[in-house]
Amino acid sequence: MFYLxxxxxxxxxxxxxxxxxxxxxxxxxxxxxAGAQITVIAPQxxxxxxxxxxxxxxxxxxxxxxxxxVHAGLRLVISATNAPQVSESVFARALDERVLVNCVxxxxxxxxxxxxxxxxxxxxxxxxxxxxxxxxxxxxxxxxETRLPQGLGRLAELAGRLRLEVKQSLPDVDxxxxxxxxxxxxxxxxxxxxxxxxxxVSDAQRMLSQQRAGGEIVLVGAGPGDPxxxxxxxxxxxxxxxxxxxxKLIDPGLLEYARRDVELVDVGxxxxxxxxxxxxxxxxxxxxxxxxxSGTHMQAAINERLIEEALRGKKVVRLKGGDPFIFGRGxxxxxxAAQQGFAVEIIPGITAGMAAASYAGIPLTxxxxxxxxxxxxxxRVADAQNLEWSDWARDDQTLVIYMALVSLETIQERLLxxxxxxxxxxxxxxxxxxxxxxxxxxxxxxxxxxxxxxxxTGPSIIIVGQAVDIAQQxxxxxxxxxxxxxxxxx
Length: 490
Ligand SMILES: C[S@@+](CC[C@H](N)C(=O)[O-])C[C@H]1O[C@@H](n2cnc3c(N)ncnc32)[C@H](O)[C@@H]1O
Hints:
This protein is of the alpha/beta class and about 500 residues long. It folds into 4 domains: about 15-115, Rossmann fold (3-Layer(aba) Sandwich), CATH 3.40.50; about 150-215; about 215-350, Tetrapyrrole methylase, N-terminal domain (Cobalt-precorrin-4 Transmethylase, domain 1); about 355-475, Methyltransferase, Cobalt-precorrin-4 Transmethylase, Domain 2 (2-Layer Sandwich). Helices cover about 40% and strands about 15% of the residues. It contains 19 helices and 17 strands. It has helices at about 20-35, 45-55, 85-95, 135-145, 150-170, 175-185, 185-195, 195-210, 230-240, 250-255, 270-275, 285-290, 295-310, 330-340, 350-360, 390, 410-415, 445-455, 470-490, and strands at about 15-20, 35-40, 60, 75-80, 100-105, 115-120, 125, 215-220, 245, 265, 315-320, 345, 370-375, 395-400, 425-430, 440-445, 460-465. The strands form 4 sheets. Strands 3-2-1-4-5 form a 5-stranded parallel β-sheet, sandwiched between helices. Strands 10-9-11-8-12 form a 5-stranded parallel β-sheet, sandwiched between helices. The chain has a 5-stranded mixed β-sheet with strand order 13-14-17-15-16, sandwiched between helices. Helix 1 (about 20-35) links the parallel strand 1 and strand 2. Helix 5 (about 150-170) runs parallel beside helix 8 (about 195-210) and helix 7 (about 185-195) packs antiparallel against helix 8 (about 195-210). The longest helix is centred in the last third of the chain and has 22 residues, at about 470-490. The two termini are about 55 Å apart. The structure holds S-adenosylmethionine (SAM). S-adenosylmethionine binds near residues 320 and 328.
């Protein structure tokens, strides 16, 4: 059976509900919201329905159903009883009187069916399985729910407030469509959804008067590696990008979410390990081009391209590994864009250090063991002056060191020389969150040697501190449990 989805105006229309239990209550809430004039017939009344009557939302007839209650003056009748013969009688009578009818859980006794509803008023999403499986419809509703921002209704309010103004300013339909696409995926939309609708209206008006700058720049943190770890907002930005500029550690699966006509720009930079001449984890850039600039020049070229595309009115999404603002040069891109008058939207991502710790079972802070955590970069640590080694050597903190492979020997030596205990638990985590994730645990004094033996080739994070031991304690406890289980079983 095919049911055509329609949105029904019930304001002031007479509707009848037969039954007054919890099922009837769910339907009644929608009818009240739709402004219907409702009569309820039932011998027993749920207290909540009674309260609805007391607030003047409906009339109650406390009695058994009688056929004459269904008459041609009604727009809709709902049977929500668990007496099958009552529903059958309601249905027969409704057909005779040509009134729309829904008997709950009796698809064969319905001329209309209720969908599963996602409510972001004034946006309503209705999901139906054509009566085949209301449970599946509810599951689908759940899947969609998680993808729709809570503040979507406020976004509709923003659109409503500007509708006429935009229509007058942009008579061309395509131009209007382009404008709204740009607004809905701009920082103004984010502001509206967070509740600052007035501010969002001003931003959107500015965009309207600068149609040329329909262009925008979004910095998106793609997370540490596993594509499932990107945020929903980050994913939506990818979906709406005109130009997608991505780093080398980005999972190619994420690029699949982009529009078909998106312009993909690979801006993978050289990591410190490659710069040092070691056999690195390889970059898309290296594989596809031998002529790219690296380091500072490469960053300047990225900044220029971001702005160039935005000035052409494009939505440029800069997809960066981990979080854009943790050792990601996101700040430089933000400043370069601001210099040209572009407010950048920043969507955070899970940084590799936090993800590596979580996936390895290491709490970065732990009561009585580590009161603070420091994110450090090992990049060129060997040449750097004035590093606070004595600060880093304090025992009550966890160090999370990015890009540490090339300088691991120096880092280890200096931490020990500054007084960090040789026995401090430490670990290198390679390819965190990805299927080949590897962990090399060793006391600080032996970490470099253990890592050299392990032949690490992937991106890696080093964590140093007493909290690292928690992961190993947990492992041991689990192994003890397994051993006890197998002893009991044999
Ligand atoms: C230029 S930094 C970018 C960091 C990124 N912005 C973040 O927040 O995770 C690149 C370094 O991050 C670390 N890294 C990135 N992804 C990683 C992963 N999946 N596993 C381990 N380390 C990773 C490595 O130390 C790598 O050299």
